[in-house]
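Closing statement on the adenine sub-project.
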Amino acid sequence: HRLMIGIIGAMEAEVAILKETMEIEEVVEYAGMNFCKGLLNGKEVVVVRSGIGKVNAGICAQILVDKFQVDVLINTGVAGSLDAAIDIGDIVISTAAVQRDMDAAVFGDPLGQVPQMDTFLFPADECLVQKAKEVNETVNPDIHTFTGIVASGDQFIASKEAKDRIVTNFHALCAEMEGAAIAHAAYLNKVSCVIIRAISDKADNSAVMDYPEFEKRAIKQNVRLVTELVAEIV
Ligand code: ADE
């Protein structure tokens, strides 16, 4: 079968430009989500808005595996930076993802560990990470590209305290709300995945103000990267 790539964004704004860019052949609805199947830059893709949070993202990823037999899951969107060196507009590519709000510490599990699973971090595909990094340095030369851990959870991070806790516990580069759920689904289904996030805010007390202002710019960087990346996937 031909290579099939699933591209998930949590919000309509995060997938709208991709949908405008691609040639849509078919739109199919499952679980209230519209799966847009077609060609992006010559590659077979399904682009979908999952909705916000880990549960929506996990459901969406599983549907892409079951109904569209995707080989690759790409999660694109915005995120809050957890590192002073990573600025608004910069891109973070996941090497792995963790569920920052998973907490069974009373039983001795480290924070973030899903109890009884054989992994703490849900890894990204190394080859995809490398390709994404190279492509981004070419198509978005005016911003910086970082690779590292993405911390996902069902909280928008908008205080120094919450931000510091995530940095201390997980040494993550950015905080968002879906990536680890998609990486978790990819892990269970043995498909490859990568999370690509453009920084929209600093996950601190300014986050609520910065986020809407920088969201658009961040999304444009992502679209450039994702559109060129899919062409490189073989
Ligand atoms: N997505 C974008 N910014 C975020 C933040 N500060 N926390 C969680 N998700 C985000």
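The pocket of adenine is lined by residues 78-80, 156-158, 175-177, 200-201, 203, 207, 211 (CB under 6 Å). With this model delivered, the sub-project is considered complete and its resources will be redirected to Aim 3.
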